[in-house]
């Protein structure tokens, strides 16, 4: 029986998970592919560290040694940072290897170039593991895009931030206490900036945009906000209103352009993300035929991410090389239901008399905290005038017992 030879770059959580899964699911892989899958090499940093890797596998810190192997079919990349990983993958593609990556930062910056290079060299590139861990969102989008036209994607794409927000609400903890808990449990790095400031979710959002729409918004135009400004008091206030904070990435094709944001928002119990807790991720896709579908599952960890890599391994072995990008869809979300662009907001740090006549006052939550309806422009203008003002959008319909005096525009 012929053999598929695989090299794994990196032997941290993801790389080790991929190695173990190839060993534990060898029979299943052989049954699906008709060939035996073997790990031929592992790239590591420290050659002297003991690892449970079988005899006969090349364990090296020199990537050139891996490229010199007499047979090399697939390179799985599970390292961090843009370099040297980008250079490694280019060289592997030029050698004629299929590529699988779990590196969202590198792929967000260099994915288009890698896809083009893979096309030129008649190999396939898998990147399911770059977005939402074990959730097969990229495979789902590939399937939908055969006929459906995707118009909007929303997602909880970072398990660390979702875990922190859940801990703050459930355990009545501060942000700092919940972050420490995330670090102790291995969900957050010593430097958690990429997660809590929204960079990780931003990179994943750009990857999803490229798949869904064949292009990305201008990175500088994307609103990116982390969760560090959310206090335990705000979470308690939201809970009393039946709302929960979620860090949500959003992509919408509207008016011929792509609008994107990564920011904290509030959702009610009818929203599909309301019950997405802990390190779970979720992605909601709206397309013109099927409507809305939601995928939910573990967003991080050794085996959820390894699952995505292994599914990509099957994908690259069975697929013929395809063109590097999707064809941009021409349909867009209709804005006719809300022609003035008004949204519902939780605002705090101002007095009712400071609200302008263009803002609809819905409910007073407490002193200085209100539910209002206004355009984003109006709320941003308020924030520029009053430094103490903070605000968060509420997704979906906010229900309240309407009173005549409450609904009076000021």
From TrEMBL:
Residues 10-127 form the Aspartate/homoserine dehydrogenase NAD-binding domain. NADPH binds at residue 104. The active site is at residue 204. Signal peptide: none annotated. Its EC number is 1.1.1.3. GO terms for molecular function: homoserine dehydrogenase activity; NADP binding. Keywords: Amino-acid biosynthesis, Methionine biosynthesis, NADP, Oxidoreductase, Sodium, Threonine biosynthesis. Pfam families: Homoserine_dh, NAD_binding_3. Residues 136-314 form the Homoserine dehydrogenase catalytic domain. L-homoserine binds at residue 189. It catalyses: L-homoserine + NADP(+) = L-aspartate 4-semialdehyde + NADPH + H(+). One of its GO terms (biological process) is threonine biosynthetic process. Pathway: Amino-acid biosynthesis; L-threonine biosynthesis; L-threonine from L-aspartate: step 3/5; Amino-acid biosynthesis; L-methionine biosynthesis via de novo pathway; L-homoserine from L-aspartate: step 3/3. Belongs to the homoserine dehydrogenase family. NCBIfam families: PRK06349.1 (NF004976). This is Homoserine dehydrogenase. It comes from Neobacillus novalis.
